[in-house]
């Protein structure tokens, strides 16, 4: 296991709690032992704002966060286009795996060859598996289909840098992270009736997972073999959703959390079936629901305090263009589970990333 680098007292406390959780929930011989991390050549990231490291900076959309206070706790205190006050889960995983400190956006025109070789991000804030027009933030995002198109461009560039054989090796040994789905439910099902008129919840979940399956198969055909697929968070605990459904008592929307859990259960059953159809592949489920619900339901255990609103503004609805340098922010974002009304704070991302490093990444070696 790589050395730990949580910053601040909260980070240290969270690390100790994560290790206690793993030591009591994972059976490894007669005592808790460190699990070694697998080796990956690079990291390739697809999905939505949870993993967008700045691609939306380069497209026409209201879903841009290349302004303060976003990035206030990022190295250099600069807004990079990440939907948080600091690093994302994928940045932290790349660091834990000794690949790179942060994952740059593919649309950055100044990418070096070395950055391309060690991996980039294709994700876009507002994206989802459902390409229905109203499903994108501000009417503009890079759809999952178009992210696949960008990846094809990337593969061509990669082959031009290192040649066909080496490119095939890099792609086959890359950690491919896919994190999407929340926007589909929030934008197309819960808050707007666009898909409720066509699907019931069970059908819509199956529809999205079929789309995910096709997406993975397309990446596989392009040379990818090692996939980390994120499940859904407890959507009903996102501050914006609480505002929409339970503004006064600020409690999680349990029906939406139940939907997330059912989706995740289906996903854990579907991935092994898909893996069996893709020779040489490894598909690992990334559980983000449990670590997030741990933080939300037991905040003081992890050193956080505020769980039902974000740090930016009132924390009830501010996000992207409504969270600006003119918007007041909390004094200490590490005390908040959420940075804005939709997105996690860096301390939350640290906890989720460490949880995935310990309980998710070793599954690539099984």
UniProtKB/TrEMBL annotation:
Gene Ontology molecular function: hydrolase activity, acting on ester bonds
Pfam families on file: Lipase_GDSL (PF00657)
Family (UniProt): Belongs to the 'GDSL' lipolytic enzyme family.
The protein's name in its UniProt record: GDSL esterase/lipase
């Amino acid at each position: 296991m790589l050395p730990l680098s949580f910053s601040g007292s909260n980070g240290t406390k969270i690390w100790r709690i994560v290790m206690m959780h793993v030591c009591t929930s994972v059976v490894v011989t007669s005592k808790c032992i460190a699990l070694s991390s697998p080796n990956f050549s690079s990291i390739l990231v697809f999905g939505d704002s949870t993993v967008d490291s700045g691609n939306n900076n380069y497209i026409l959309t209201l879903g841009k966060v290349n302004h303060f206070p976003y990035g206030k706790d990022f190295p250099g205190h600069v807004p990079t286009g990440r939907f948080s006050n600091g690093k994302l889960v994928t940045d932290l995983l790349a660091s834990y795996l000794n690949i790179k400190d942060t994952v740059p956006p593919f649309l950055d025109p100044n990418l070096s060859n070395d950055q391309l070789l060690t991996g980039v991000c294709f994700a876009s804030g507002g994206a989802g598996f459902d390409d229905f027009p109203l499903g994108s933030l501000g009417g503009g995002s890079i759809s999952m289909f178009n992210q696949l198109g960008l990846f094809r461009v990337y593969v061509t560039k990669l082959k031009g840098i290192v040649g066909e054989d080496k490119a095939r090796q890099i792609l086959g040994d890359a950690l491919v992270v896919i994190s999407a789905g929340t926007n589909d439910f929030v934008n197309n099902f819960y808050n707007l009736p666009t898909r409720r008129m066509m699907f019931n919840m069970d059908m819509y979940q199956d529809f999205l997972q079929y789309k995910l399956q096709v997406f993975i198969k397309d990446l596989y055909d392009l040379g990818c073999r090692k996939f980390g697929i994120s499940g859904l968070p407890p959507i009903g605990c996102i501050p914006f959703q609480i505002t929409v459904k339970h503004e006064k008592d600020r409690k999680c929307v349990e029906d939406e959390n139940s939907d997330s859990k059912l989706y995740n259960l289906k996903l854990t059953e579907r991935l092994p079936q898909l893996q069996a159809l893709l020779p040489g592949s490894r598909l690992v489920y990334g559980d983000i629901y449990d670590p997030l619900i741990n933080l939300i339901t037991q905040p003081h255990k992890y050193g956080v305090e505020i769980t039902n609103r974000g740090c930016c503004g009132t924390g009830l609805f501010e996000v992207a263009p409504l969270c600006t340098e003119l918007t007041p922010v909390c004094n200490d974002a590490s005390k908040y589970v959420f940075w804005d009304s939709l997105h996690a704070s860096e301390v939350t991302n640290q906890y989720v990333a460490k949880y995935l490093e310990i309980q998710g990444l070793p599954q690539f070696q099984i």
